[in-house]
Write a structure and sequence with these properties.
Length: 71
């Protein structure tokens, strides 16, 4: 094998290693984003449920206030 072939093979190996590292980082970041999205969706659902509960309380208070308001 010539020195040029050795250099080319070493360069190719280095490129493959860089690619593998970048692929691993990409996959880790994708998983982080999936986890964050899942948490955001859970938080969003929880906030919607809390809002529904608060709207129910507001409606109930409005009815109670209507009874005491002068007509």
């Amino acid at each position: 094998m010539t020195e040029l072939e050795t250099l080319l093979l070493n360069a190719l190996d280095e490129l493959q290693q860089q690619h593998d590292r970048q692929q691993q980082i990409y996959q880790q970041e994708q998983q982080i984003l999936r986890n964050m999205f899942g948490r955001i969706m859970q938080d969003n659902q929880s906030l919607r449920e809390q809002l529904d509960t608060l709207n129910g309380h507001v409606a109930s208070l409005q009815k109670q206030l209507a009874r005491f308001s002068p007509s």
